[in-house]
Amino acid sequence: MAVFLTDEWFEQVEKMGNEAGELNLPPALANMIVNLKVSDTDKDIEANFADGLLHRGLNSNGTTTLLLDRSILQSIITDFDTNQIMGAFMSGKIRVEGDMSQLMAVQTARPSAEQKELYKRIKSMTTMV
């Protein structure tokens, strides 16, 4: 088990992503690169979503940045409930800097069976703080 968003967690996610192989992502998810600035009580965390996975640090190819807190990101990663995501966005808990077109395109995208299976594995090894 690894604590969400720690170095150990990112290392395990990367390893699991490599082991999973091709995720057969829909085009909207396959082409999406979004930077994340996550506010946390201890320290802010920078990450990015690319290739269907969360990665440590910002991605220089990202044109969109989401500003959100740790609990909202945990919810997105563990539940991927689009209604909850839209509710958080509408209530200002998720703020967007940059190009919003990627986010609009992803509204109708559904994770592939391979991505769902990988996220189940990630969720099972993740400790939420």
Detailed description of the structure:
- There is one protein chain.
- The chain has 129 residues and is an alpha/beta fold.
- The protein has one domain (2-120): SCP2 sterol-binding domain (Nonspecific Lipid-transfer Protein, Chain A), CATH 3.30.1050.
- It is 43% helix and 24% strand.
- The protein contains 6 helices and 7 strands, in the order βααββββααβααβ.
- It has helices spanning 7-20, 27-30, 70-79, 82-90, 101-106, 113-124, and strands spanning 2-3, 33-39, 45-50, 53-56, 64-69, 95-98, 126-127.
- The strands form 2 sheets. It has a 5-stranded mixed beta sheet.
- A hairpin with a 5-residue loop joins β2 (33-39) and β3.
- α1 (7-20) runs antiparallel to α6 (113-124).
- InterPro entries: SCP2_sterol-bd_dom_sf.
- This is SCP-2 sterol transfer family protein.
- It comes from Psychrobacter piscatorii.
Helices and strands in order:
Layout: E1 2-3, H1 7-20, H2 27-30, E2 33-39, E3 45-50, E4 53-56, E5 64-69, H3 70-79, H4 82-90, E6 95-98, H5 101-106, H6 113-124, E7 126-127
Parallel strand pairs: 1-7, 2-5
Antiparallel strand pairs: 2-3, 3-4, 5-6
Helix pairs in contact: 1-6
Please name the defining characteristics of this protein.
single chain, 129 residues, alpha/beta, Nonspecific Lipid-transfer Protein, Chain A, five-stranded mixed β-sheet, 6 helices, 7 strands, SCP2_sterol-bd_dom_sf, SCP-2 sterol transfer family protein
Give the H and E element order: EHHEEEEHHEHHE
Number of helices: 6
- Using DSSP, what is the number of strands? 7
Separation of the first and last Cα atoms: 12 Å
Residues in helix, %: 40-55%
What would CATH call the architecture? 2-Layer Sandwich
Q: Globular, elongated, flat, extended or rod-shaped: what is the shape?
A: globular
